[in-house]
Write a sequence for this structure.
């Protein structure tokens, strides 16, 4: 019985460690996303998406494809600053897919600047050695 309990504890700790490692790895991807977002460079940001990625921004139509995503961010990026993306939960969907649930904060630009906070779901896909965004949906809490 003691051996079974120890074996169970080992499995739980191993799974917890793997989940923490996955979350750390996804946070590293978010750090790159944060840097690209805060650069204000829509082309740089669009490079983080797959060629046929889908973007689902709040209050807007579905946007499909890297070029249309770049066009969207060309207009949207100048309206926010100090963005930060944080991984809250991640789930592996196979060797090349991760589903992330996260949160973000930012500030609007302009004379009447306001804080923004919200949440998102990103489907990351590994292409060759790079992780890219396959699908991205978000909404704001305030």
């Amino acid at each position: 019985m003691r051996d079974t309990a120890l074996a169970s504890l080992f499995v739980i700790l191993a799974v917890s460690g793997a989940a923490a490692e996955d979350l750390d790895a996804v946070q590293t991807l978010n750090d790159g996303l944060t840097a690209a977002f805060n650069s204000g460079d829509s082309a740089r940001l669009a490079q983080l998406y797959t060629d046929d990625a889908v973007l689902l921004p709040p209050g807007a139509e579905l946007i499909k494809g890297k070029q249309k995503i770049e066009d969207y961010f060309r207009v949207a990026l100048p309206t926010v600053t100090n963005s930060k993306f944080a991984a809250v939960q991640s789930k592996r969907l196979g060797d090349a897919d991760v589903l992330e649930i996260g949160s973000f904060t930012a500030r609007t630009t302009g004379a009447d600047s306001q804080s923004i906070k919200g949440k998102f779901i990103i489907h990351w896909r590994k292409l060759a050695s790079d992780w890219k965004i396959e699908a991205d949906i978000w909404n704001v809490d305030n």
